[in-house]
Amino acid sequence: MTTVTADPAPPSTPSGRSARPSRLRRSWEKHWYAWAMVLPVVIVLAILIFYPLFRGIWLSLTNLTEANQAAEICTRSITGGEVCAENPNRWEFVGLDNYLNVLSGNVGDFWQWTGITLIWTLGCVVFHYGLGLGLAVMLNRPMWGRGLYRVLLVLPWAVPAFVSAFAWKFIFNERFGLANSLLTSLGIDPVDWFANQWTSLFTAIITNIWLGVPFMMVALLGGMQTIPGELYEAAEIDGASAWQRFRNITLPGLRPVSMTVILLGTIWTFNMFPIIFLVTEGQPAGGTEILVTGAFRAAFEGIRNYSLASTYGVLILSILLVFSMFYRRALRKQGEVW
Q1: Euclidean distance between CA atoms 173 and 21, whole angstroms
Q2: Considering Cα of 3, then 8, then 9, then 13, what sign does the dihedral take?
Q3: I want to staple 297 with a disulfide (CB 3.0 to 4.6 A). Which of 32, 116, 221, 301 is the partner?
Q4: What is the spatial distance between Cα 103 and Cα 85, in angstroms, rounded to a whole number?
Q5: What is the DSSP string of 151-216?
């Protein structure tokens, strides 16, 4: 006769309940190798992302600048030595003063920059998606040289942004640019593109469209190739036109990809620093500055105002977080899982 012995009961706590390992401890004991593999990534993220993030938030609550960051001010005496004295204007914690000054317009041009940033972002993303979708539809069809066209259309994406920025800035040069040469050949007077706020912003948007359309095209083309071909065949048999197939099959099938690339494109364009900085340089008179270039100039031009630049950075992050939350909520209402 076989005797069955029961497993020993877990030890009891003074309160009479059995002491079970915590959920975190059980996960560690069962999946320690996974935790060990994730640890290097966590360390890298902590160094490259989390520390700068929290450091920036802390600086935005101070009045730290290049002028008041030193604890002591040292001057050289006539004897050749140094005389040091305590800095009377040493930086200090100021709470939310920087945010109040920025949002009230006492410091910088936050609201003007925000408006330009929104126009810049909306214009770029709309054309990115529209042109990318059109090119993806074209390349998804059987055609001669389709592989060559794909390579050529992806080239702008492969070129470094600063190279494209300098190239397009030369194209819009008032005296030697290709754009004005074309206008002159048509009998139209040359345009000083960077002398007007809106023509200057137009040149930056054109440059960014050139850079951003290939990404949208590749992502949407990949999404189209996941749509079953049987759906198009059945719709064609039922007599659906090309527009009806596009509207009722292609667009719904691309919705998950579209929602993702639009979100990514919005965040990338909102923070697209090199195009504005290199193409328009904020001309004329800061009329094409966006938030990220304004933050850069606060941190690295004139008397460097680190606290003000950090404040701009936190506000930019906050705007994008709020946008992402509302975007996610809108997707969930439409039944999208994201």
Answers
A1: 70
A2: positive
A3: 301
A4: 36
A5: HHHHHHHHS-HHHHHHHHHHHT-TTT-HHHHHHHHTT-----TTSSHHHHHHHHHHHHHHHHHHHH
Distance from C-alpha of 114 to C-alpha of 120, rounded to nearest angstrom: 10
Instruction: Please give the Cα distance from 150 to 135 (Å, whole number).
Output: 9
Q: How many residues are listed for the chain in this entry?
A: 338
Q: Distance of CA 290 to CAs 34, 183, 207, 293, 297, Å?
A: 42, 29, 15, 6, 11
CB 216 within 8 A of CB 210: no
Residue 323, both tokens = 């946008």
Instruction: For residue 167, give the nearest of 271, 49, 279 by alpha carbon.
Output: 279
pLDDT digits over 185-213, tens only?
Answer: 998 898 899 999 999 999 999 999 999 99
Residues 212, 205: Cα–Cα separation, whole Å: 10
- H-type helices in 21-96, by residue range? 23-30, 32-45, 51-59
The set of residues, in sequence order, having a beta carbon less than 8 Å from that of 192 and lying 6+ positions away, is 174, 199
CB 73 within 8 A of CB 94: no
Q: Tokens at residue 213, please? A: 């359309």
Q: pTM to 2 decimals?
A: 0.81
